From TrEMBL:
<dbReference type="GO" id="GO:0009298">
    <property type="term" value="P:GDP-mannose biosynthetic process"/>
</dbReference>
<protein>
    <submittedName>
        <fullName>Mannose-1-phosphate guanylyltransferase</fullName>
    </submittedName>
</protein>
<dbReference type="InterPro" id="IPR014710">
    <property type="entry name" value="RmlC-like_jellyroll"/>
</dbReference>
<dbReference type="GO" id="GO:0005976">
    <property type="term" value="P:polysaccharide metabolic process"/>
</dbReference>
<dbReference type="GO" id="GO:0004475">
    <property type="term" value="F:mannose-1-phosphate guanylyltransferase (GTP) activity"/>
</dbReference>
<keyword id="KW-0548">Nucleotidyltransferase</keyword>
<dbReference type="InterPro" id="IPR001538">
    <property type="entry name" value="Man6P_isomerase-2_C"/>
</dbReference>
<keyword id="KW-0808">Transferase</keyword>
<dbReference type="Pfam" id="PF01050">
    <property type="entry name" value="MannoseP_isomer"/>
</dbReference>
<dbReference type="InterPro" id="IPR051161">
    <property type="entry name" value="Mannose-6P_isomerase_type2"/>
</dbReference>
<feature type="domain" description="Mannose-6-phosphate isomerase type II C-terminal">
    <location>
        <begin position="22"/>
        <end position="122"/>
    </location>
</feature>
<dbReference type="InterPro" id="IPR011051">
    <property type="entry name" value="RmlC_Cupin_sf"/>
</dbReference>
Length: 127
């Protein structure tokens, strides 16, 4: 996001997550009035997405089920349900299942275009 004067602002997307308590429970707000694309991605047992990176968007991943595996810049993370990870534009990343079906919430910030996927490695021959 560019402010007047050409200064590039980096938003702390993890720090921007807001928890709001209500008498009935509460909610977490991940984005407020900014362009974003929201998906729930499900991964079949033992499968994995391509190792990839994007030039034009950051992604925030939230583990919804046990068994997800996040690979970010070569680091393997086995998140607990509710854990969050921020993937900055340009970082390599991959999502996989550690043996059982799993889902994540993905919030993409910035211009979203499937053509922005640069596949570096793919189990399905799409490189």
């Amino acid at each position: 996001m560019e402010a007047g004067g050409g200064i590039l602002l980096k938003i702390d997307r993890l720090g921007a997550v807001v928890r709001d308590e209500r008498p009935w429970g509460g909610f977490e707000r991940y984005t407020l009035n900014e362009p974003s694309t929201v998906k729930i991605i499900d991964v079949a047992p033992g499968q994995r997405l391509s190792l990839q990176r994007h030039e034009h968007r950051d992604e925030l991943w939230v583990a919804l089920d046990p068994g997800a595996v996040f690979e970010i810049d070569g680091e393997r993370i086995e998140p607990s349900v509710g854990d969050r990870v921020l993937i900055r534009a340009g970082q390599t990343h991959r999502l996989s299942s550690a043996g059982r079906a799993t889902r994540i919430l993905e919030i993409a910030f910035g211009h979203f275009d499937e053509d922005d996927i640069e596949r570096l490695e793919d189990s399905y021959g799409r490189v």
